[in-house]
């Protein structure tokens, strides 16, 4: 075998392996988008999302100062810092206990909203609702009023709100959050 032929064959094999490995990476990005937590200074949530490790940044805000009612928001971002997910639990009183979850605001129950976000993080993509018949739980395990930190956990199963209105066909029809533990600051 000539040196020229050997070199050409080697370069072709390397080129093909790079080409096919890039194609595979691109397909992986479509199937499973990059979901990064972003800045976790104000809080974090960690657990499983559709059987894959999931970490999100989080924070709590007071939405009703008279009744001391809060909302907790969790977000993930892509590698460019654009928001990709938004999970909000609202109508929360700072007391240690499990809470009943609902999709629409109802007195004494925690309202849940989950969506994916597209474009450069400012475009609502697909909206999900809680899946009927699933065990959906949210609890506060600890309220540290000195450090102003809320700790707890949740497990929530979502389904796409309306299959006909699905914006991003790569998004799964169901999102299952399991064994999520969170710690967020409140003011």
Q: Can you characterise this structure?
A:
The protein has one helix at residues 3-31; strands at residues 43-49, 52-64, 69-77, 83-93, 97-99, 101-102, 110-118, 123-130, 137-144, 149-160, 174-185. With 187 residues, it is α+β, with helices and mostly antiparallel strands. The model is unreliable at 3-31 (pLDDT under 50).
Mean pLDDT equals 84
Gyration radius (Cα, Å) is 21 Å
- Class by helix and strand content? alpha+beta
Oligomer: single chain
Distance between the termini: 74 Å
Main features:
50% strand; disordered N terminus; single chain; 8-stranded antiparallel beta barrel; globular; 11 strands; alpha+beta; 187 residues; 1 helix
Give the helices and strands, then pairings.
Layout: H1 3-31, E1 43-49, E2 52-64, E3 69-77, E4 83-93, E5 97-99, E6 101-102, E7 110-118, E8 123-130, E9 137-144, E10 149-160, E11 174-185
Parallel strand pairs: 6-7
Antiparallel strand pairs: 1-2, 1-11, 2-3, 3-4, 4-7, 5-9, 7-8, 8-10, 9-10, 10-11
Q: What is the gist of this entry?
A:
By secondary structure, the protein is of the alpha+beta class. It has one helix spanning 3-31, and strands at residues 43-49, 52-64, 69-77, 83-93, 97-99, 101-102, 110-118, 123-130, 137-144, 149-160, 174-185. The protein has an 8-stranded antiparallel barrel with strand order 1-2-3-4-7-8-10-11.
């Amino acid at each position: 075998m000539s040196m020229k032929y050997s070199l050409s064959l080697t370069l072709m094999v390397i080129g093909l392996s790079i080409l096919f490995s890039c194609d595979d990476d691109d397909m992986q990005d479509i199937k499973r988008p990059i979901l990064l937590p972003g800045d976790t200074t104000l809080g974090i949530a960690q657990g499983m999302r559709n059987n894959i490790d999931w970490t999100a940044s989080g924070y709590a805000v007071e939405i009703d100062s008279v009744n001391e009612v809060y909302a907790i928001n969790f977000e993930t971002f892509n590698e460019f810092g654009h928001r990709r997910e938004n999970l909000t639990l609202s109508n929360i009183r700072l007391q240690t206990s499990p809470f009943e979850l609902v999709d629409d605001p109802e007195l004494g129950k925690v309202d849940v909203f989950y969506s994916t976000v597209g474009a450069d993080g400012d475009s609502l993509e697909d909206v999900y609702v809680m899946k009927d018949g699933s065990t959906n739980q949210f609890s506060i395990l600890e309220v540290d009023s000195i450090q102003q930190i809320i700790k707890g956990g949740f497990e929530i199963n979502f389904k796409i709100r309306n299959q006909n209105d699905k914006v991003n066909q790569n998004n799964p029809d169901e999102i299952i959050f399991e064994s999520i533990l969170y710690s967020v600051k409140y003011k």
